[in-house]
């Protein structure tokens, strides 16, 4: 269909030329590329039945539609491609070691543990860590920073191995989906008493797709009925043939629980790396790598665990991680010790960033603070545009009519907030994998780390989204705003529960029975220590009322620190009372729970039956 003019405005027409546009571009960006008046593009869209303003970011489909209509060929530049171009404009190359062969030296392999739920991934990661802490570096407080390094002896030589400490393939896939390759070798854990299960296959396929060699850990051999031979047979069908059967995959029988053969497993990892990979890196250049975990820490600000992939990261370096940047103020290793430098394949916790980056974001060290800031700002702007583009709903006049007539919603919009970038991304990728049929479209409009804020509610209001708080709560005003605007904010602490509920809701099968009703919130102003009762919180009631014997949770910096607490004691001055209302002060005793701090918030709630609707 050709549209020569609308209301007297001449419409631009191309000859099939290609126009490159970044994801989330606006009609004005498009117009600029083809030397046209933005207003004329608005007119074309109107003609197609869509109201779009000239400066708003639009979806890929809208750009495509518009281009087709005007006989242009549009090429939407992926974020990865765009990022490469951005770095190139600063003369930075990401992902390649500088210099020639002679600059490269051996580095440890980076390993991810994958497998079916309950087959022992977590237990194995703990067992490895406990038995093989790098000699001489123990002593600090063991910290879970998202990765750790161990050492093992192979052929009389000390060899190191780096483990990514978040088991499961969700994190692995989320990172890979973003173009970040974090893993050299995958350990596939299969419980010998259970055999190959659906997620075993899934994990195996992910590793294969990423071209990552696999070492199989046949776990739980201590359990009665364990059949390690059967596991070998089963996996043969999926192309993993054990060495003893003439294949090239190493299988090691272990018990994570009893700590059996953990060393053999580590040896298998080293041998597999030596046989099939050439793991070398330039340790002398400016550091580059990826972020594997990040969160906001009350005392320390934004902290991120990064895995150095090449170069050496040093305290004082200026770095960019995703859209965060800063000078490295301090670095801690996985034993909680301060370190001043970290070379290839070393994970370190970095302090000093401006904000919290995402898991899988790449990081690089640059010479000047100004460059770091500019790269970070450009990336942030791009993220905003892309988020906005996703958010813009394309409702054509036709469609709108249909939707209204049928009285049905066709798209479930979600906003995900969580306590750490890893969990948020794992949640997002699991949700996006839900098979929801053709009638409904599931979209994640926004995701982030931290409490649910007014901005989130704002976005939810504007796009009819549901807000998911994963191990975080809404801050005070956001709760009120959500209530006022009728935004559904749901809190969870277990990933599969979110998945189950969303799936049920999408299938129209959600049977709400009980809902949580917030009763009141109290801010801790002082802490009194009583030898008989433990810590008593001196509080000011911020909203609602706090009643004795109701359930409570403790919130610190918007994050839930403890669940399932009970208001065991409630006092005003010297009197025991049953309730204290908003604006009044009092004392709260949470029974045996004592880990409270000034500024923490105690939120009380009760479960009420929810009317079915
Ligand atoms: P994940 O879901 O794969 O991370 O599995 P977990 O590491 O949480 O382990 C699931 C359950 O299996 C836990 O109760 C573990 O204690 C248990 N388990 C893990 N490894 C072994 C093992 O080698 N032997 C036995 N008997 N139990 C194990």
Automatic annotation (TrEMBL):
GTP-binding listed as a keyword: yes
Superkingdom field: Bacteria
Keywords: Cytoplasm, GTP-binding, Initiation factor, Nucleotide-binding, Protein biosynthesis
Binding-site positions, GTP: 115-122, 165-169, 219-222
InterPro entries for this protein: EF-G-like_DII (IPR053905), IF2_II (IPR044145), IF2_N (IPR006847), P-loop_NTPase (IPR027417), Small_GTP-bd (IPR005225), T_Tr_GTP-bd_dom (IPR000795), TF_IF2_bacterial-like (IPR000178), TIF_IF2 (IPR015760)
Primary location class: cytoplasm
Location relative to the cell: Cytoplasm
Pfam families recorded: EF-G_D2 (PF22042), GTP_EFTU (PF00009), IF-2 (PF11987), IF2_N (PF04760)
Residue span, Tr-type G domain: 106-278
PANTHER family registered for this protein in UniProt: TR-TYPE G DOMAIN-CONTAINING PROTEIN, TRANSLATION INITIATION FACTOR IF-2-RELATED
HAMAP family, alphabetized: IF_2_B
Family: Belongs to the TRAFAC class translation factor GTPase superfamily. Classic translation factor GTPase family. IF-2 subfamily.
Protein's job: One of the essential components for the initiation of protein synthesis. Protects formylmethionyl-tRNA from spontaneous hydrolysis and promotes its binding to the 30S ribosomal subunits. Also involved in the hydrolysis of GTP during the formation of the 70S ribosomal complex.
Name used for this protein in its record: Translation initiation factor IF-2
Organism: Streptomyces javensis
